[in-house]
TrEMBL record:
Location of the protein in the cell: Nucleus
Domain TFIIS N-terminal: 45-123
Name listed for the protein in its UniProt record: TFIIS N-terminal domain-containing protein
SUPFAM superfamilies: Conserved domain common to transcription factors TFIIS, elongin A, CRSP70 (SSF47676)
Nucleus as UniProt keyword: yes
Major localization listed first in the record, in broad terms: nucleus
Keyword Nucleotide-binding attributed: no
Keywords: Nucleus
Length: 206
């Protein structure tokens, strides 16, 4: 069927309408694309309900092509917005129009994508130049101090002395074996009092 052939060819390009309308409204908050949205939806509905008439389907295709051309011409006047290009499907949807059956639509889509690429590249060059200026704005002394602080070695970390002095162990007293019965026991040596030592010494001298 003729209308089904047109729908099949146009189906993958329908998302471009929504993306383009949203981009235009974001760039110009005072502009509303509601009227164009309603008109596009009406033509698509007519195409879906069309009878098996090749002439009618072709007329509706021409109308859709004209609507897309109008949308692209308006988008061409909108400055490139890197944030929108990065956060939406606008670049992808417009890029898909480079394969559109209409030569006019293809030409406009290619020109818009090339313009976006050039604009974003220019913004990147400006950002790089601005960073270079900011780097040069630093005074030489400040730069030297900054590098000196970076290259200066860090002071050694102080570690707490956890070792504690241990009290000296008491000296062991000498012990001598004492024979008692059938087993040997060890007792500590106990010196007798001085009076007993004198008596013992006198007894041995006698």
């Amino acid at each position: 069927m003729a209308e089904q052939g047109v729908l099949r060819r146009w189906k993958r390009f329908f998302p471009a309408f929504a993306s383009i309308h949203a981009a235009i409204e974001a760039a110009e908050p005072g502009i509303s694309r509601r009227e164009f949205r309603d008109a596009t939806d009406k033509v698509v509905a007519m195409l879906c309900n069309a009878t098996d008439d090749e002439a009618v389907a072709e007329e509706l295709r021409v109308v859709l092509d004209g609507m897309m051309v109008e949308a692209l011409l308006t988008l061409e006047l909108v400055p490139a917005m890197p944030k929108m290009l990065a956060s939406t499907d606008l670049a992808q949807d417009v890029g898909a129009l480079r394969n559109h059956p209409s030569e006019r639509v293809r030409s406009l889509a290619i020109g818009i994508v090339r313009g976006w690429r050039a604009s974003v590249k220019d913004e990147l060059l400006k950002a790089a130049a601005a960073m270079e200026k900011l780097s040069q704005a630093m005074e030489p002394d400040e730069a030297d101090d900054h590098h000196a602080k970076i290259l200066q070695p860090s002071p050694p970390k102080k570690t707490a002395n956890t070792s504690r002095s241990q009290p000296p162990f008491p000296k062991k007293q000498s012990a001598r074996p004492v024979v008692g019965g059938s087993r040997v026991t060890t007792t500590a040596k106990i010196d007798p009092p001085p009076e007993q030592r004198r008596r013992s010494g006198g007894a041995r001298s006698r």
